[in-house]
From TrEMBL:
Name of one Pfam family that matches: Pur_ac_phosph_N
Boundaries of every Purple acid phosphatase N-terminal domain copy: 64-160
Record's protein name: Fibronectin type III domain-containing protein
Keyword terms, alphabetized: Signal
Secretion signal, residue range per the UniProt entry: 1-20
Keyword Signal: yes
GO molecular-function term, one example from the UniProt record: acid phosphatase activity
Organism, as annotated: Pseudidiomarina sp. PP-1MA
Listed SUPFAM superfamilies: Metallo-dependent phosphatases, Purple acid phosphatase, N-terminal domain
Record domain Calcineurin-like phosphoesterase: where: 189-365
InterPro entries with a match to the protein in the record: Calcineurin-like_PHP, Metallo-depent_PP-like, PAPs-like, PAPs_N, Purple_acid_Pase-like_N
């Protein structure tokens, strides 16, 4: 359910919210069309989307859009599909069939009925539909389409995971956040060219910027960037601090309604956090999403998540375990640190031998495999990775330079995770397709071991001679209207 304040007063958030308490979570506002944070020599009109203020582009319509496929708790047998139409579409209908080469998919399809929630924005009143898919057969190719007003979407295909472990590839992305269609889109497209049969797309938060009343345009560009992929490849999102906002007189942030509208996650997390904390088992890998924003603004909610996490880790039949959340356990960028996460969550990662911890927030790249705590039961703790997929770029800290295995600045990246019975191969690629970092995590009866395979290339550093801030390489909002270099 949406919080009552959004149902009663959607204009309160749609017209723009001033963020309070930003120092707590280390974020800054990024406007859609105001003066950029930059030195006079490089000042340009800032923009966070490609939308012109006098030319609306993403108004709601009777046609189904923003179609998204999310796995259930057991992805081999359950899933959720969400999509958006305007409010003229009052029924949430989906047709589902086992996929065949014949175009007559409708002759074998069964019709499923779901529900919808309303959401107002400057782009109009929308109905966000959601339908549960249950009793799916493992390792089976399905086709589905969703209903608009007297029309349907295209048919989407997805293959359910096997019931037990079977090798496959997943994709992991750090923050997109700014200039999503303009700059992030190339990263996600290159990722699919690199791993065209990926089964999972995992996001470590800050999918959009959610600032200054342009939320719906930003989400529209997110779905334009991911395109058909969002409806055909299992989506595993974690909420970041930019999926939250706050009122002028209330420093505690609340989850913005677009997140709930677009993402019907598995819903098996703690009751107070079921919109953002969940787990899904996908073909022998348990993916666990935590809400680090809530953990950092409430010690109680950090503990609540820890209690839930211990149960999920202690009763885990899967071969591999991946935890993902927005704020890093071990920060990479200058001036950032998140001690509550290390206090409440890291001991559990070590105790239950979590394999990978995937994060965002720092707008840099960092990878560390020697961060096990004193309570670790295995000499090799989880491998921690922090990455960034969009154009907002920070600088790495001296601490990170002293402790991390591989670092990077000023680089848009995506990561592939190749799961095998006895090993996981991790590769980080730049948005232009070059290998930037790699390792193999081996798992044997004697324990885990990391084989470092990073290429013998120099670590990338900030190339911007006019940094907008001492700790920042690019704002992310200073790129869409930046002029070409002088010839």
């Amino acid at each position: 359910m949406l919080p009552s304040q959004f149902l009663l007063s959607p204009v309160a958030w749609a017209s723009g919210l001033v963020l309070a308490g930003s120092a707590l979570l280390g974020c800054s506002a990024g406007p859609n069309s105001v003066a950029a944070e930059a030195s006079p020599a490089q000042a340009v009109t800032a923009a966070n989307t490609l939308v012109l203020s006098d030319q609306p582009r993403y108004q709601v319509s009777p046609y189904p859009e923003r179609i998204t496929l999310l796995p259930g708790a057991a992805a081999s047998s359950s899933a959720q599909v969400t999509w958006r139409t305007n409010s003229s579409v009052t029924e949430s209908l989906l047709q589902l069939a086992v996929a065949t080469p014949s175009p007559g998919l409708h002759t074998q399809a069964k019709q499923l009925i779901g529900r919808s929630i309303k959401l107002n924005s400057p782009n109009g009143e929308a109905h966000h539909h959601r339908v549960q898919l249950s009793q799916l057969q493992p390792d089976t190719l399905y086709a589905y389409r969703v209903k608009g007003l007297n029309t349907w979407s295209s048919w989407h295909q997805f293959k359910t995971p096997a019931a037990d472990f079977k090798p496959y590839t997943a994709l992991y992305f750090g923050d997109a956040q700014n200039a999503v269609l303009s700059h992030y889109a190339r990263t996600v497209r290159e990722a699919l060219l690199t791993a065209p049969r990926a089964k999972v797309m995992l996001y470590a938060g800050d999918l959009v910027n959610s600032r200054d009343g342009v939320h719906d345009d930003e989400w529209a560009e997110w779905f334009a960037a991911t395109s058909w992929m969002a409806g055909s490849i299992y989506q595993l999102p974690a909420a970041g601090n930019h999926e939250f906002s706050s009122d002028d007189d209330q420093p505690i942030r609340y989850l913005l309604p677009h997140w709930v509208a677009h993402y019907e996650v598995a819903g098996n997390g703690p009751e107070a956090l079921s919109d953002t904390v969940y787990y899904s088992d996908v073909q022998g890998v348990r993916y666990i999403a935590l809400d680090s924003t809530e953990a950092l603004q409430s010690e109680q909610l950090a503990q609540v998540q820890a209690q839930w996490l211990e149960q999920v880790l202690a009763n885990n039949p899967n071969r591999w375990t991946v935890v993902f959340h927005h704020h890093p356990m071990h920060s990479v960028s200058m001036g950032r640190d998140n001690p509550p996460l290390r206090k409440y969550w890291q001991p559990l990662y070590d105790k239950y031998q979590v394999d990978l911890v995937l994060q965002g927030h720092d707008h840099t790249y960092g990878r560390d495999h020697q961060a096990a705590s004193a309570t670790a039961t295995d000499s090799q703790g989880p491998v921690y990775a922090v990455s960034v997929a969009g154009p907002k770029m920070y600088l790495v800290s001296e601490q990170a330079q002293a402790t991390m295995d591989r670092l990077g600045e000023d680089t848009q990246l995506f990561q592939t995770l190749e799961f095998h019975q006895d090993r996981v191969k991790y590769q980080a690629f730049t948005a232009t397709g070059e290998l930037y970092d790699a390792f193999v995590l081996h798992k044997t009866a004697a324990g885990k071991q990391v084989e470092d395979l990073q290429p013998a290339t120099a670590e990338r550093r900030c190339s911007n001679p006019n940094k907008p801030k001492p700790h920042r390489c690019w704002n992310g909002t200073d790129l869409i209207h930046a002029p070409a270099a002088a010839q």
